[in-house]
């Protein structure tokens, strides 16, 4: 049982996480095949005797990649907290629920049909990818909602079971489509499916940022409702909560977050599982405190994992999804064993 923490504890955890994220960003931006000092970074940003090679490395490669990693981690961490709260299940995760698979299937379809003709480095191609991801995530959600609806209500346990089945189905379809691609497109799709942000650019940031700006405040406003949804349905209804409507709103918002993140980063798993568990141990179960801390923990996980992935076996790189899975899979098994023991 997690206890409610004090406001002082919350701010201590918040500042500590911001500090750790800052250190991770520093390591990320200064390290690599081409090392850059802090003074060189400042000169380049302020355009004081900056070198062309420094501008290229910072503005075209490292800064977009860092920002995408931070935004993706933030979005996935918050989405994980919402999905675990709605389902009242600590093993729930955007990937397990089928949202990642639905968004991933739609984007692989996009890559298969249009990459050679429509997908370019311009605004059009970049903005269409997140839309495809969102449509895929919403399609998966629509199927899951239809199958999880039981006796006039959205059953949280059926939601998870149906999500696992839908995720497997979309995963099989994604594999089938990817095998139909030409070798170069198949390689790109495979890298994307493992979760990778090595090709991030500023347009990716523009494509996903509106979803975070719109959806995260809505979820924060619904934090108190999410606390009430932890009670039995009868108790929550007696307090005037429209259970089905609130669950649908929360899930649609989390689906939007996940779809936007997956569309630019590939299918990164376990962030939405790890972040809420760590956050509950640090700040308790009150969602007004839990949600922002989950976002920061997710940000730290993805940024640091991407730094490890690009430096551990340099000059080769490990996709960030693989690095996170090396920690996520054992932790997931541990959670299952602990849950079974209880």
UniProtKB/TrEMBL annotation:
It comes from the Bacteria. Pfam families: FecCD (PF01032). InterPro entries: ABC_BtuC-like (IPR037294), ABC_transptr_permease_BtuC (IPR000522). The chain crosses the membrane at residues 9-29, 66-83, 95-115, 127-147, 159-181, 201-221, 248-278, 290-308, 320-337. Keywords: Cell membrane, Membrane, Transmembrane, Transmembrane helix, Transport. Its main location: membrane. It is found in: Cell membrane. The keyword Transport applies. Coiled coil: none annotated. It is a multi-pass membrane protein. PANTHER family: FERRIC ENTEROBACTIN TRANSPORT SYSTEM PERMEASE PROTEIN (PTHR30472), IRON-UPTAKE SYSTEM PERMEASE PROTEIN FEUC (PTHR30472:SF23). Belongs to the binding-protein-dependent transport system permease family. FecCD subfamily. This is Iron ABC transporter permease. It comes from Paenibacillus arenosi.
